[in-house]
Amino acid sequence: xxxxxxxRIYRKKMRMSQAELASFLGLSQRTISHYENxxxxxxxxxxxxxxxxLQVSADELLGLNKNxxxx
Length: 71
Prior knowledge:
- By secondary structure, the protein is mainly α.
- The protein has helices at residues 3-13, 18-25, 29-37, 44-54, 58-62, 66-69.
- Helix 2 packs across helix 3.
- It starts with a helix and ends with a helix.
């Protein structure tokens, strides 16, 4: 799965709305919507904050498996 799909899945696992996640991150609900529909991608700082808020690793959120993330 890709970032957009995973973001929606992990956000829902935390029982958060797009607006709630946006509020925690200091972003707009529209920005979260764009992330989830794949029309925008977060900065590295925003990615870190999303991971922290949703309690998920960047590898999981980005859809990387162990084989893909190793060099």
